[in-house]
Design brief:
Blueprint (H helix, E strand, L loop, with lengths): L9 E2 L3 E4 L6 H8 L2 H4 L11 H12 L7 E7 L3 E13 L11 E10 L8 H15 L5 E7 L3 H9 L3 E11 L4 E11 L1
Parallel strand pairs: 5-6
Antiparallel strand pairs: 1-2, 2-3, 3-4, 4-5, 6-8, 7-8
Helix pairs in contact: 1-3
Length: 189
Amino acid sequence: MCLIETSPEIQTRRTVLRAPEAVDAARIAAVCGDLAVARMTARMPHPYALTDAEGWIGRAQGQDPRIERNFVIDHDEEGVVGMISLFPSEQLADEGTPPGRSAVRTELGYCIGASWAGRGLATEAVQGLLGWARRDWSRRVVSAGHFADNPASGRVLEKAGFLYTGERRSLFSRARGAWVASRMMVWLA
């Protein structure tokens, strides 16, 4: 017998976090095509075309569910308003990690359309995903970061229980085409 693991649907008060589907591509491209959204991410290019959205959906559908999970943030009344992901991120070794080796950690990333920013939807999505990650995916530590010029993202993460680590990094933003100062945070279950 072959078991295929289906992607979970995570219900929050106003949204459902669910696996992206091909029919979501146009909406994802519209949300991510906004430079105000793309410039606050490391991985998102600008311009962000329909083919970029289709590629992200294809990668999400082919992901290894043991180490990566990608969701759309589907608002009850307004449809897809953003995306949220948990993915592997190599970070500096912890105590106990053999010298010269890095530890693979789970990192959280998200984006919310500019039209929906400031309504608490990002915080709600992050909290819902972290609850699922702790309860059903057995994650106890999740890292995240935000660009220093995006304190609103830091507030979202703080409201979800993340704490600043004191670490600052320079991350390359594809949309900006430049290295940008970022502040790192951690969530402990």
